[in-house]
Amino acid sequence: MTNIQRALEVENLRAGYDAFDVLQGMSLHVGVGERVGLFGPNGHGKTTLLNAVSKLIQPRAGSVRFMGESLEARSAQEIVAMGLVHVSQANRMFPDMEIMETLELAAYTPRARKDRKANLEHVLELFPRLAERRRQEAKTLSGGERQMLSIGVGLMCAPRMLMLDEPTLGLSPKLKDELAVAIGKISADGIPLLLIEQDIAFVLSLVDRMYLIDHGEITREVARGGDVDHDEIMDMYFGGHVSS
Ligand SMILES: Nc1ncnc2c1ncn2[C@@H]1O[C@H](COP(=O)(O)OP(=O)(O)OP(=O)(O)O)[C@@H](O)[C@H]1O
């Protein structure tokens, strides 16, 4: 039996839209049980990376392996069924569906169906706000509650790894804190994470390691507690530092 050390391994990935390559041959990895951040300016390829890994767009070159298995011939649905789950920014929920219906529907793969009851209990425990509003329709949820529901939907797919695309976008500091606690608990369960975030302090508080992305390439890797100067990074990316 092979001893898998890397949950996700991306090598020289190229992907983009129309004639334009956004990812210029990107390589990165996430270890089993590891939490990894992706940080970079708007429009430099973070979401494109997650889309190409989960096959929402077709990569043009390079390779992606999940738990040692190549994803080359796999469809987006098969990748979810394998347990690689991408929680996107788009919040595409069925607006008229209640929280409970939405969560139950998300457990559609054979693996997820098997553990539906336990996963549902876990999600409602992790996000008490969703439990309180279990009969509320998705369209009436606040932005923060919708983010929680998106992550809940991801967890109902029985993930062996989660990729989260800016889960704190537009949230108040209090909700950000709540979400940070929930994300911390998810990774404490041993689920590897790849987390896109614009808030550098937030991402560094949650991950073991962080990649910096610039123009579709990884430019630097920063270990947690490593030598990172927030102001320098904000200057590098945004041309002037932003205080939080
Ligand atoms: N469907 C699409 N069709 C054409 N171009 C696209 C499409 N989606 C994204 N792009 C372009 O690809 C580039 C990278 O976008 P991407 O969403 O990956 O950036 P990002 O780093 O995730 O940014 P943000 O932090 O703003 O979400 C941008 O120039 C964007 O306009």
UniProtKB/TrEMBL annotation:
So which domain of life are we looking at?
Bacteria
InterPro entries given in the database record: AAA+_ATPase, ABC_transporter-like_ATP-bd, ABC_transporter-like_CS, BCAA_Transport_ATP-bd_LivF, P-loop_NTPase
Query: What Gene Ontology terms describe what this protein does at the molecular function level?
Result: ATP binding
Q: Which SMART domains match?
A: AAA (SM00382)
Q: One short Pfam family name for this protein? A: ABC_tran
Q: Which UniProt keywords apply?
A: Amino-acid transport, ATP-binding, Nucleotide-binding, Transport
**The ABC transporter domain covers which part of the protein?**
8-240
Q: Which protein family is it in?
A: Belongs to the ABC transporter superfamily.
Protein name per Swiss-Prot or TrEMBL: ABC transporter ATP-binding protein
